[in-house]
Amino acid sequence: MKNNKTLFIKSINDKFTNLTLYSVKNKYILPLVFVILYLFFYFSVDLSSQSLIAHDEGLYARRSRLLEESNNWFLSPFESAHHKTLGSYWLIALSIKLFGTSELSLRLPSIVLSVICLLISFLITKIILNQQSALISICSLASMPLWIKYSRYASPDISFVLCILLVIYFFIKFITSYQSRRTYYFAFLSGFFISLAFFIRSYMVFVPLLGLAPFLINQLNKVNYRSRNVFFLGILIGLIPTLVNLYYAYYLYGIEGISSLFFFARQKVIGDFNPSDVFLPFLNILYLTFPIGILFLFCMIFIRNNNKIRFPLLVYCYPLISFFTLYLMSNTYSHYYLFLLPSLSLLFSSYIPSLSIENLRSRKVLNFLIFFIINFIFVLILYFLFSDRNYISTLTHLQVLIIYIVISLISISTMLSMFTFYISRSKFKYKILFYNFIITQFTSLSLLYNFGILGSPNYKTKSFLRDSYVNSIIKTNTIYLVNVNSKIETLLSYYLPSSERLKMTDQLSLYNYIFTSDVSLVNKLTNNKTFATISNYDHNFLLMNIVK
Fold first, then answer.
1. CA of 149: how far to CAs of 46, 128, 155, 498, 511, in Å?
2. Are the CB atoms for 127 and 31 separated by under 8 Å?
3. By the 8 A CB rule, do 337 and 323 touch?
4. Cα separation of 545 and 139, whole Å?
5. Per-residue pLDDT tens over the stretch 129-150
6. Is the pTM of this model over 0.70?
7. CA-CA distance, 385 to 406, in Å (whole number)?
């Protein structure tokens, strides 16, 4: 009898253990599947259809290549004082060193770090809200057009966003951890990533820091002086790469090597104000975060948010202060708002779990707006399907196939959304609509980027350089650039590292090969029978000296 009782208890314990292990494993299945699918849609790339985007990608690619070739990652490889800290180019230069020079290697740091950003954003939202909201948050963030673009863009923007997220994450862990050693560890790392963010993006770091200041100051006043000292020690240690970089800049260029950073930042902040741009930042945010930005506005108006949110200074004040700081700057670009997208997705995720018929302020108005969005998307699909036949004729068969796959995917998604919206009486129908929208959008935009239909505007330049005859010339000869379009010149400075720019045009007969965008110069040289056109595209010409 005793043995039977022992066996029964052991059986119960085994079942409980197995159930616990299953629950733990199941807890990580969904995030793991998400990461695998996310990476799949970023690495299933047709490399032949990719090209860099000028100016930014071309500039970052060329400067990173110069840094990698210099073999001194703190000493500026540029001819004059540079307006950015060298941390802007470190990760791209490292990727070039490890994987060679290709569009994928240049964009690899952004792709990998974007995944880490999503995971850190998930952990932050989980602490502030809950796991369900955290999953909604990263799905929202991953589907935003601005995020999709820059998470595969050769620039330091995603690495900067990661640093800001790590500052927030480690600071939250610092103020919520009650174990002394871990508390100091988190405090140090939070301060360290503040300084590292400056090394990557220089004065741009002060925009999110200004937004975070009320939260940081309020929380630091509540902790003991040792924790504060460790936090500031992290800031000082993190400044070491920047100080070494500035030392070398001063050594090479004098005080200009340091002041150039400040003058560039001042140029972005202070300038002429254009009254016509008053509403432009708001419209850009709604457009570049579609549909999350618009849905968030609807949620704020029509839904009563019952969630209790921790750290309101972080959740509300930080994005609000940061946004208006950027709004007041004289010169801002869309990627300046990139670090605010995790906060927007967090705020949005706080409303979605509250979506139910009982919790709506005005169900009829919300239903009408959702109906309008669904049908608006459907009309756009029909428009793009039948409008621009000339554009489709310039694409490859594979690209045309991808376009029709995307159109079919969006059409099915739209019809499914309409069916769900009108037929389903479940309180979860709004969540189904949400996931239907974002999964379709992420998949569609990823396919369009992966196959060069979006995000590859200079594909013709790369195709021109890949031509077998042109390629045989540029491999063994120096190509001299004369009166070349600035964007094309930026790309060629990366794709043709041996090329040289010529300012004077009166002694062109001394050179074997020249590349120009000046049609009048081409006519003059060919009429004089000193040069002959080898190849051309879009009013850009490669000429060969036929006299020399």
1. 16, 27, 11, 30, 40
2. no
3. yes
4. 57
5. 988 889 889 999 999 999 999 9
6. yes
7. 11
